[in-house]
Amino acid sequence: MIRAAGTSDIEAVVALEAATQGADAWSEGLVRDGIGGGLPTISYLVAETDDQVIGYAVASYAGDIAELQRIGVAEPARRGGVASELLAAIVAHAPSTGADRMLLEVRADNRGAIAFYAARDFVEIDRRARYYRDGTDAVVMRLPLIAGCGGRQK
Ligand SMILES: CC(C)(COP(=O)(O)OP(=O)(O)OC[C@H]1O[C@@H](n2cnc3c(N)ncnc32)[C@H](O)[C@@H]1OP(=O)(O)O)[C@@H](O)C(=O)NCCC(=O)NCCS
């Protein structure tokens, strides 16, 4: 089940953030602020099965751009479609916020995530050199949400 995250999910999301994002993981304070509503453009979703939070995603909606800031799934639950469900929920919601495209940045060495995004119709549009704290480049990818916003149309 995909649902909006609540304050009772903070601990689980912080643990997933640490487990899936490594050195780039957000602090507990930042997650708490985001889930608690302190960051007005930010929205957290969680994927739950058998009362366990097994995945989460974070999007920001500001003007015509929706940004996928995070998506992570617990290792044992991967390749079962959980991230696809989380992404589908974000993509379905984004146009109602006024967004016409979704952008994201992903580490250039994160082959699994790049393959996931490509399989979900994101296309690479740019690179940001030395974007991450260890000097790795970011690949910038885009998904059009309405016709005429670039990328591959569905
Ligand atoms: C990337 C990630 C979110 C994918 O989650 P997931 O629940 O396993 O994804 P899904 O099961 O919905 O995958 C759907 C499709 O994406 C592609 N895909 C996903 N992981 C892949 C991998 N490691 N290698 C190649 N393709 C992959 C495949 O096409 C897959 O379909 P298939 O299983 O039928 O081949 C997960 O691997 C993860 O949490 N990684 C660590 C965190 C991370 O890198 N997040 C992204 C940057 S914020």
Summarize the model shown.
The protein is an alpha+beta fold and 154 residues long. The chain has helices at residues 10-21, 28-36, 82-93, 111-119, and strands at 2-4, 42-49, 52-62, 65-73, 101-107, 123-128, 138-144. It has one domain (2-144): Gcn5-related N-acetyltransferase (GNAT) (Aminopeptidase, 3-Layer(aba) Sandwich), CATH 3.40.630.30.
Account of the protein in words:
With 154 residues, this protein is of the alpha+beta class. The protein has a single domain (2-144), classed as Gcn5-related N-acetyltransferase (GNAT) (Aminopeptidase, 3-Layer(aba) Sandwich). Helix content is 27%, strand content 33%. The chain is built from 4 helices and 7 strands, in the order E-H-H-E-E-E-H-E-H-E-E. It has helices spanning 10-21, 28-36, 82-93, 111-119, and strands at residues 2-4, 42-49, 52-62, 65-73, 101-107, 123-128, 138-144. Strands 1-2-3-4-5-7-6 form a 7-stranded mixed sheet, sandwiched between helices. Strand 2 and strand 3 (52-62) form a beta hairpin. Helix 1 (10-21) packs across helix 2. The radius of gyration is 15 Å and the shape is globular. Bound molecules: coenzyme A. Coenzyme A (COA) binds next to strand 4, helix 3 and helix 4.
